Amino acid sequence: PCAGPVESKTEAAMSELVPEPRQKPAVPMKPMGINANLLGYIGIDTIIEQMRKKTMKTGFDFNIMVVGQSGLGKSTLVNTLFKSQVSRKSSGWNREEKIPKTVEIKAIGHVIEEGGVKMKLTVIDTPGFGDQINNENCWEPIEKYINEQYEKFLKEEVNIARKKRIPDTRVHCCLYFISPTGHSLRPLDLEFMKHLSKVVNIIPVIAKADTMTLEEKIEFKQRVRKELEVNGIEFYPQKEFDEDLEDKTENDKIRQESMPFAVVGSDKEYQVNGKRVLGRKTPWGIIEVENLTHCEFALLRDFVIRTHLQDLKEVTHNIHYETYRAKRLNDNGGLPPMTTETEENHESNL
Amino acid sequence: VFNFSLSCQFSDGAGYVGFANLPNQVHRKSVKKGFEFTLMVVGESGLGKSTLINSLFLTDLYPERYIPGAAEKIERTVQIEASTVEIEERGVKLRLTVVDTPGYGDAINSQDCFKTIIQYIDNQFERYLHDESGLNRRHIVDNRVHCCFYFISPFGHGLKPLDVEFMKALHGKVNIVPVIAKADTLTLKERERLKRRVLDEISEHGIRIYQLPDADSDEDEEFKEQTRASIPFAVIGSNQLIEVKGKKIRGRLYPWGVVEVENPEHNDFLKLRTMLVTHMQDLQEVTQDLHYENFRSERLKRTGK
To answer: Septin-type G domain: which residues (chain B) (predicted)?
Structure first.
């Protein structure tokens, strides 16, 4: 029944404190006389089911940030993605309201459930981004917020009496909205993505794609991809994190052909061919959001939610968070001090 | 601003988002990565530990086994021997490490024989703590002991003093699953009596053995209760095939009949194996969340790191 290759354990390098146990050479799974006929079943594969049950029971967190100038349909798109009113649409800045001097960070949490799986979804909005006359460094509050979440996680992780499940507020995915000018990226787009692609998974999307014809869309996408490449911007899924050939093939296709997704969002339903669909009604026709011939919303949705959700979280945890942590370890000559307190205010002598 | 509310879904049909697919995504990644599990076996020599392990995992973990004579055993101290084997079943890969403890209980004076074992378990915790606190955490190997089968002799009247001492010393460090070995030396009545004795003594001494978690809503509550009621499992192991009623089964051939390993009426082998494989995930979780965290907080408090 078993046919694995032999492997003797090689432990990670460890200090001299801990002596190695005496290792017997590992035994190959040779088909012995007695086992040859006895095709027994042990039941190891049930561990998969155990893990699945655990995921279902504990539910999971997902934190998605949206960045882009106001009016690009960010809230509508997020609502469309999760088929719920998870983000409150703004109607722009009226004359009495002042555009905030710095970018605000607004995080709103919802619990949504589907097929027995509970998701604690947090949508982080960034009103004010790119809305000023002078937008210099407007990404800084965003970068600060992202790092603050890493810090929060780190602090809990190094605690002596730490929580079993550390609450995860880290940003798993940042949707960056590109204005459908049809020309090229704006300098602000480049600056933002250059800075932030190093700390968070960025997924660029072309907003309000119903302003472009098919040809214009294809050309614009090509130009944007080129610009991103020339400027060394690694958006998600990053090439260097492809785990194996299977991932690479799948992701190459997405990187080189599909992204950036040209999307249209809507929370209104219309009747088309006897079906209720989400769409935008215009005199010249109804734009169906989930129709792949109209826009790439469904691709974005499938990508973020149905296939790469777990991977977005893993890259955030294993790559971005670890990078932050390593920097903290090196910069201050050590981690923040362990404490048995659980309050936030253990500011230390770092 | 954090407000939690069950948000309104759009009209049916259009309401499906797709994140119910997440467990499948996790599944895919887990299958790719494979699983690791470390099982320790502790008990006096000759209680059938090796045979049982071979029977459980349908392997031959100890091919060129050398059994030392009594005179040699006098000089020996407890050794720790770890063997690793990769088992694959229906596409799922498991890296199983069996940690054997030859020499346990052999010495005339067995006063300190479990100190080596405690040290081994602590060392694995120490190693993990070190790796977890380090810079490069991408490939931490988890060698912590997830489960310890403790073999109780069927020849006595219950737990021996050494059994009690061992379990008291280790129940805060590892999941202990007590097993009554060589159960074919007992009649069914004797078996029940011994089990009752062992459970009473365990409770008397405040020993905390591994507890099966409550059954989930879709799990067979009755089956789980039956399993729980069988602890400690009275088992028999065998690597020999005997022909019974035209079928080849694992068993032990006696003049008075054949003891069948996988016959639930003969012994609890199947219950033990089922319990182990269906709780691997939970055993790992309890090791991580309880035993390891205890070790870690003690350790950190001590060194004031």
So the answer is: 33-302
